[in-house]
Amino acid sequence: MRKSVLVIIIFLMVVVITFSCKKETVEGTTTTLPDNPYSHISYPSNITSPKIDSFSFVGLHQYIFQARCAMPGCHDGSFEPDFRTVQSAYNTMVLQPVAKNNSSHTFVYRVKPFDATMSWLHYRITTKDTVLGRMPLYDSMLSARQILQITNWINSGAPDMFSNVANQPNANPQTFGIVATIVVSGNPYRVDTIRKGNPFMPFLVPNNTQLTIWFGVYDDVQTPLQLINNQIKFSANPIGFGSVVANNLSNVTSPIWMDNLFKTHQPYYYYFTVNTASLPNGQPVYFRFYTQDNQHNTPVELPNDGWDFYQQSYFSLIVAP
Q: Is 303 exposed, middle or buried (0-12, 13-18, 19+ CB in 10 A)?
């Protein structure tokens, strides 16, 4: 009896092992792959890349800037302009400030669109200044054709790799200082430097005296003496200028002494003369001036409520009681 039971158990184990080892099949599978429509295309063996226009910025970068200037230790990212890639070359040249200028500080931008003669890049590849050095500095001069390509690119607006002409954002006019004068013995005498306590306190002026306040202004686009809506306002309240009556400013080509005070690329000098007897005395009188270039629809207020108070108090005076 025991032997029969043992035989049955062994038989069942064999059956289980046999069926568990049976190869699994998955319904719905097939060994035939779907047709690839691109596998039957016959590509020609003589395909060539399109030729790059040597007058385009991509061409200038490939044939000149990268090939002649992106040398180890030079414009390889060690310093700007960075000629390693098309993007880095464009972004570090066009409308970027000059770090190393000539002795006259002639140039503002490395590349000034539409003006090769005022572009530092053009000057550096054509200069005969042996002290400054012509670029490429340790190589032969660029060919006449290469210089022409760079010149034409700049004078065409310095378009980028997508042929978009460079567009410089225009800032509002800004002030670079004030000068206040009275006349003493027939000569101008500065009173804006007479400030009690610190340089940002109101300056002191005598009563019943003709006071002339000069404003130095610069603008990044406008040519000299073409700013509009030039006015001045006085107020005893440092932030209460909204309803104050404005007075028109005058402009003038500055005397030599003014040029020596205000040194900038594009100076503007506007002034207003007031008798101090018409102003409150013994207390701070704040003033602001307003000007506008032809790129903006409204005048800019200098200073304005967004300036720090010590900056606003710089534009103030006290009439001696």
A: buried
Query: Cα separation of 113 and 97, whole Å?
Result: 13
Q: Are 185 and 241 in contact (CB under 8 A)?
A: no
Q: Are 69 and 139 in contact (CB under 8 A)?
A: no
Q: Is the pTM of this model over 0.90?
A: no
> Is 2.50.20 the CATH number for 174-319?
no
Angle in degrees, CA 113, 117, 121, rounded to 5: 70
Euclidean distance between CA atoms 151 and 143, whole angstroms: 12
For 233-268, what is each residue's pLDDT tens digit?
A: 999 998 879 889 999 998 866 555 566 665 554 567
Quote the CA–CA distance of 93 and 240 in Å, as a whole number.
44
3-state secondary structure of 70: coil
Q: How far is 104 from 120, CA to CA, in rounded Å?
A: 13
CA distance 32 to 109: 66
DSSP-derived secondary structure for 211-267: EEEEEEEE-SSPPTT--EEEEEEEESSTT--TTPPPEE-EE-PPPHHHHHH---SS-
**E strand or H helix that includes residue 290:** strand 284-292
Return the domain boundaries, the chain: 57-155, 174-319
DSSP state of 73: T
- pLDDT over 70 (residue 204): yes
Determine contact, residues 122/155, Cβ cutoff 8 Å: no
